[in-house]
Amino acid sequence: MEKKNRVIGIRVIDLDEVDSTNEYAKRIAPEVPEGTVVVAKRQTAGRGRRGRSWASPEGGLWLSVILKPPRLDGRLVFVGALAVSDTLADFGIPSGIKWPNDVWAGGKKISGVLTEGKAGEYTVLGIGLNVNNPLPEELRESATAMVNFIGARVPLERVLERLLFHLDGWYRVFLEMPELMMAKVRERTFILGRTVRVIEDDNVLIGRAVDVLDDGSLLLDIGGQLRRVLYGDVSLRFL
Length: 239
Ligand code: ATP
Ligand code: BTN
What we know:
Helix content: 10-25%
Radius of gyration: 17 Å
Order of helices and strands: EHEEHEEEEHHHEEEEE
Bound molecules: adenosine-5'-triphosphate, biotin
CATH class of the largest domain: Alpha Beta
Shape: globular
Number of helices: 5
């Protein structure tokens, strides 16, 4: 694999077990170079957004990348989603982005991205991708894993290698041409044209998803009125 000029994956910290790779990455972020990756076989306290738990048994890919971009930018979440979707394509699995932070395949969630940052210091880009891992009973309706598409165990190291490669590429695009990255997000998301319910803090908005704008926000048509919804801790469901 061509490693010259690579940023993401220059150093990979491989753990058997950790509370959460995001927490671990935040602890070491000040001392390590940009592009350091923390990957764990299992997480005992894997997290989604708003403190929700993320099932992380052995067999999945649970990792966090430490980035030190020039400024805090929530659009980094899309670097993760695009890289996951390219990785899935490398294994012949078609997927789409559920704005803002999930990747779905076969109508179910296969991956989630969680970014956490400290202004002026770092952003941790956490990615959970279901590969060979079993899914808890309560998630079987809504979630899926790569093994379900391929029908045999998928070599985790291969998936990790492809993912790091694509993360590196998309991070470069994000830094140099963020509009180009957003154009790809627009192309890959499957929410546009659909009626959705968005929960933003205490606000519940119901409307048609019209566009994803260059700043990463979602444009909703609510009974003829256009309303911008910022990404972040918003929850989006189809109606
Ligand atoms: P919303 O639908 O509200 O936008 P979301 O699906 O994006 O939410 P998050 O809070 O981003 O939800 O992610 C956490 C949720 O993901 C959990 O509440 C759980 O339902 C689901 N989940 C947990 N572990 C896994 C997993 N390994 N694979 C797929 N989904 C999972
Ligand atoms: C979501 O859909 O809410 C995002 C889930 C993010 C899960 C990953 S797994 C690696 C990293 N460590 C965590 O605790 N969470 C992220």
